[in-house]
C-alpha cells in the first residue's frame, strides 16, 4: 500500500523502465501500417501532431477535482518515447513503406516527401502468406517451408534478427494485415501442443495470422490483433500468454462506423430510448475494401461488427426497448473512393408512448487516419503491459477494438465511455493512484 497524504492507495505492480528502443513489428504493411509509421516519423521531426492518440495527447485526472493534477498520460505512466520506436513488418507485396504509402493513397506528398528516405528504408520481410485465407490478394514476397511449423519458426528467426540488428530492448507486434476468411476455434486451438502438431500437419484450421501470433508469443513479444481474424483469441494462446506474462489483445481496430455506434448507442440507452432498426452500409475502395469484397473475409468482419449493438443495449434486460432490433451491416467495394470511406447509418428509434423518430449519420471518414493512432497507442500500451508483467488478455485495451477479447464467460464491454474509464482506471492502478468513481460526495460534505 502507498500512503498518499490522507489517502491509502493500493500499490500497482512493479513496472520495468521504458528506456531503450522498442521495436514495433507490423505484419501487413498496407494503408494502416504505413499511415502509422509516417505519422510517427513526422511527429518526431515536429512536422505533425499525433491527433487521435491518447498516449501522446490525452491527460489523466488524478485524485480529487480540487487538486488540479492532470498530467499527460505519457508523462504520468512512463511510456516508450516516439524517438525510441523502430518499425519493421512483413508483407507478401514487396513494396517498401514509401511505395506502399503512395499506393495506399492516404497521405499527400507534402507528408510523404519529408520522410521519403526513412520510409523507403523499411522493406517488408517475406510474409507467411497463403492465398486460401485471403483470396483477393497475392504477392511474391512469401516464405516457403515443409509445413506451417517451419514457417512459424522462420518468423521467430525474423523477430530475433530484427531485434538484434536494430538494437531493440523490447518488441511488440500489432497485426495490420488483411482480414482472413472466417474460422472458428476448434480442437487444434485448445493447447499449444495441439496447435504445434496441427502446424506440422498443415492443418487448414491454422491461418497465417496465427503463425505470427504464435511466433510472437514464443519470443515473449506482446501481440495485438487489429483485424477481426481468429488469430490469438483461443485457449491455446490465451492460456500460454497468461502463464508466461505476455500481453495479448484484440480484435479489429475500432474506427469508422463502429466507433460511431459505440458512441451513439450508449447515449440512446442512457436515455432509455428504444431502437427497432439500425441499418449500416459502407462504400470504400482501398485494398481492404477489395479483400472484404470476398464473402468469406466479409463474414469475419460482419461477425465482428454485429456484436456491438447487442452487447451495449442488453435486449435481455430491456426487451421492450431493444428486444426487436433489426441490425444490418453492409460493406461495398467501390474503387473510386479509395481510402475515403463513406459510412451511412439509418437508426429507427422510438420515444415516449412509442412515437417513432429517425437519425441519419453520414460519416465521410478516412479509415487509416482513424486507425493509425490506435496502432501507436496499442504498441505503447502493450509494451507497458509487458513491462508490468500483465500476461494474457488485456481487456483494459477494449477501447481500441470492435470486438474486444475478454475472459471466457464474460461478455465484452463495447461502450466507448466505459472502455475509456476502464483504461484510465487501469493506468491509475498501474501507477498506484486512487481509482476515480465520480461519486464526489466529499465536495458537498
Ligand atoms: N483502416 C481501418 O480503419 C481498419 C479498421 C479495423 C480493422 N482494420 C483492419 O486492418 C487491416 C489492415 O487494413 P489496411 O487498410 O491497412 O489494409 P491493406 O489492404 O492496405 O493492408 C493490409 C496488408 O496486409 C498484407 N497481408 C495480407 N496477408 C498478410 C500476411 N499473411 N502476412 C503479412 N502481410 C499480409 C497485404 O498484402 C496488405 O498489404 C485489415 O485487416 C483491416 O480489416 C482496418
Structural overview:
By secondary structure, this protein is an alpha/beta fold. It has two domains: 2-253 and 369-430, Rossmann fold; 256-366, Dihydrodipicolinate Reductase, domain 2 (2-Layer Sandwich), CATH 3.30.360.10. The chain has 16 helices and twelve strands. It has helices at 31-44, 54-57, 73-77, 97-104, 109-112, 116-120, 148-165, 192-200, 208-218, 235-243, 256-270, 287-292, 295-313, 319-322, 367-387, 416-430; strands at 2-4, 7-9, 21-27, 85-90, 168-175, 223-225, 247-250, 274-284, 326-333, 340-350, 356-366, 392-393. It has a six-stranded parallel sheet, sandwiched between helices. A hairpin with a 2-residue loop joins strand 1 (2-4) and strand 2 (7-9). Helix 1 crosses helix 4 (97-104). Mean pLDDT is 93; it is low at 1-8. The protein binds nicotinamide-adenine-dinucleotide. Residues 27-33, 90-93, 104, 127-129, 134, 137, 139, 176-179, 208, 226-227, 252-253, 255, 286-288, 291, 367-368, 370-371 line the site of nicotinamide-adenine-dinucleotide (NAD).
Strand coverage percent: 15-25%
- Average pLDDT confidence is 93
- What structural class results from the helix and strand content? alpha/beta
Number of domains: 2
List all distinct small molecules, including ions and cofactors, that are bound in this structure: nicotinamide-adenine-dinucleotide
The CATH first-level class of the largest domain comes to Alpha Beta
What's the Cα radius of gyration? 22 Å
Instruction: Label the overall shape.
Output: globular
CATH level-two architecture of the largest domain: 3-Layer(aba) Sandwich
What's the tally of helices? 16
Q: Strands of the biggest beta sheet: in what spatial order?
A: 4-3-5-6-7-12
H/E element string? EEEHHHEHHHHEHHEHEHEHHHEEEHEH
Fold-level CATH name of the largest domain: Rossmann fold
Helical proportion, percent range: 25-40%
Q: State the end-to-end CA separation.
A: 27 Å
